[in-house]
Amino acid sequence: MLRMSLGLVFIWFGALKFTNATPVAELVANTLPFLPGDQFVPALGLFEFVLGVALIIGRWTGLVVLLMIGHLAGTFLVLVTQPEVAFLGGNPLVLTMTGEFVVKNLILIAAGLVLVTPRPNRTSGGAAERLDADREPDPVEASQHRAAAR
């Protein structure tokens, strides 16, 4: 579900940028003012859209997440290049709505890391095994196990 929801968000946000329907076009363009915003914003949207589709397909997840994290890390440039729109009164502890919009990407990065973190298999001390070890043994099951061991 996490991979699918991330994919949907990237498709949605990417499509908004690609179709020039995003409310953050000016923010994105002003973050890298040396790039032509009228080309960069739609290109970024296409990149996000492709990332979203790739997340939903679920192939090459490691590479896709690496690209996603790189992209999301780039969003923090707003805090450096446009601190006046990210921080209220120049105070780095008080975020504006734009600042909150950028900082929430920490959650998306963490979600990406969860996607590529190996999961323990069920036979090596997973949660189900730990719960099973805590229950009282069933007398019938125990006697069947003893009989099978003989």
TrEMBL record:
UniProt keyword Membrane, yes or no: yes
Compartment list: Membrane
The keyword Transmembrane helix is annotated on this UniProt entry: yes
Keyword tags: Membrane, Transmembrane, Transmembrane helix
Recorded GO CC terms: membrane
TM spans (from-to): 40-57, 64-81, 93-116
Ranges of biased composition (kind: Basic and acidic residues): 129-138
Membrane protein topology class: Multi-pass membrane protein
Protein name: Membrane protein YkgB
